[in-house]
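Re: [ENG-882] Designed sequences occasionally contain unexpected residues at chain ends

Forwarding the minimal case from QA. Structure tokens:
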């Protein structure tokens, strides 16, 4: 049996303006109709009232209800965030349950019929399960280091597996400055439907001036806050560069790439600043970690990918999913590895051990460079024996990479003074070093053709 309700004003999502003297017909908890009152008798007359659809709070932190009235007015967003971090670190999580329950009841009392809670550890889930409100619970994930990324992925996978229909369990990677690109890319692999669009996530993206300053210019009060956080995670390090690498291939493809337009919409894997280059060229870039590339190509999630060199690409299994490799590219035409030491531990070493480390890095770097030539050349031949076809990247594509790089570095230099300083230093070195190299080094192709023609 349906029940009718009359009110002086009724707001309906299907109507452009509120209905004066409206009637709502409800049956078994579902609204059947919302229409003007025809002066027929109704079951419930709400009189001089205004009826609106239930409110939806699609981003709430129920566990932070305990902060109400306890925080002094913050000087800035980062000042407020420090207080929130302190609260979560010093408060017994069992107290959060009281605040979560109070927040749910208060929301319902004020007309909120659906809550989407961004939850630390899923704490609010049991209380939402028993509430009268519609709900979903989004597990908050944080991960910059490899260890934290793996932990976040484990938690996210277990969380999504709780889903039934309709789904209630989703993910919330916290923010661009606390979640790495690698973690965001790998979240797609957790999607049980294998469709990116069906994996719902919620993320804090530049809600304040301080966050925008960090994301766009890599400076400001948020940078100082992150340095505090990283220092608290013992991320103070000393860096040693080693192992200069030769030019990497453009990558592995289903068929040879012959023109710039072939990159339009191409699902392509790369990392770092190369993401900006290939995005500018029209590719749909995915920064998958090395261990997931081949499987993604095999499943059709990627059309093409680059990794590093003939040896590592062979070991990773690229020849099992592709027989076309394009050689030469400016996206990573040179590369350095890096060795990191805990700064505190390193500084505590005596001078002689620091000297051992410095010389060992140089020795390992030289040895790697020598052995790389031997390994890469052997595996280059082995890959061809296995049916891999190698093609030179067309000059038009190389020119497009250089054009994209100019645009990218110009933009980033304007945004980030440190980027500009490093880039200008590299350009000064390249100007003299490349001039010397081009003027001094002989063209080995001439000698190679001469030597091989005599054996023909």
């Amino acid at each position: 049996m349906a029940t009718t309700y009359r009110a002086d004003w009724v707001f309906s999502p299907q109507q452009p303006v509120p209905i004066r003297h409206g009637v709502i017909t409800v049956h078994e908890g579902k609204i059947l109709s919302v229409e003007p009152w025809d002066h027929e008798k109704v079951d419930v007359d709400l009189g001089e009232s205004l009826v609106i659809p239930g409110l939806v709070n699609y981003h709430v932190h129920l566990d932070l209800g305990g902060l109400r009235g306890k925080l002094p007015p913050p000087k800035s967003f980062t000042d407020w965030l420090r207080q929130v971090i302190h609260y979560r670190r010093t408060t017994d999580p069992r107290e959060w349950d009281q605040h979560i329950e109070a927040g749910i009841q208060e929301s319902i009392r004020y007309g909120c019929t659906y809550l989407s809670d961004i939850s630390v550890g899923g704490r609010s889930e049991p209380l939402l399960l028993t509430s009268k409100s519609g709900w979903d619970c989004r597990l908050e994930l944080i991960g910059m280091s490899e260890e934290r990324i793996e932990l976040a992925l484990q938690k996210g996978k277990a969380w999504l597996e709780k889903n039934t229909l309709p789904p209630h369990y989703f993910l919330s990677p916290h923010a661009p400055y606390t979640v790495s690109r690698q973690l965001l890319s790998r979240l797609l692999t957790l999607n049980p439907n294998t469709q990116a669009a069906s994996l719902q996530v919620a993320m804090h993206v530049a809600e304040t001036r301080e966050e925008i300053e960090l994301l766009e210019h890599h400076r400001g009060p948020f940078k100082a806050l992150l340095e505090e956080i990283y220092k608290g995670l013992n991320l103070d390090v000393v860096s040693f560069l080693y192992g200069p690498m030769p030019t990497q291939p453009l990558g592995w493809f289903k068929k040879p790439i012959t023109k710039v337009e072939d990159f339009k919409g191409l699902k392509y894997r790369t990392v770092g600043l190369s993401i900006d280059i290939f995005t500018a060229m029209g590719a749909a870039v995915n920064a998958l970690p090395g261990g997931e590339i081949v499987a993604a190509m095999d499943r059709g999630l990627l059309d093409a990918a680059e990794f590093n060199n003939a040896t590592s690409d062979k070991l990773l299994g690229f020849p099992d999913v592709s027989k076309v490799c394009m050689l030469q590219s400016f996206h990573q035409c040179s590369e350095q590895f890096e060795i990191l030491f805990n700064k505190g531990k390193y500084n505590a070493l005596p001078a002689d051990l620091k000297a051992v480390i410095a010389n060992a890095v140089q020795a390992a770097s030289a040895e790697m460079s020598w052995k790389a030539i031997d390994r890469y050349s052997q595996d280059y031949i082995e890959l061809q024996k296995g049916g891999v076809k190698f093609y030179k990247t067309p000059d038009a594509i190389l020119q497009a990479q250089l054009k994209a790089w100019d645009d990218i570095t110009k933009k980033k230099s304007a945004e980030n003074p440190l980027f500009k300083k490093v880039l200008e230093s590299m350009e000064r070195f390249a100007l003299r070093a490349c001039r010397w190299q081009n003027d001094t080094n002989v063209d080995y192709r001439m000698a190679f053709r001469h030597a091989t023609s005599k054996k023909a």
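QA comment: On inspection the terminal residues look reasonable. The longest helix spans residues 351-385. Proposing we downgrade this to a documentation issue.
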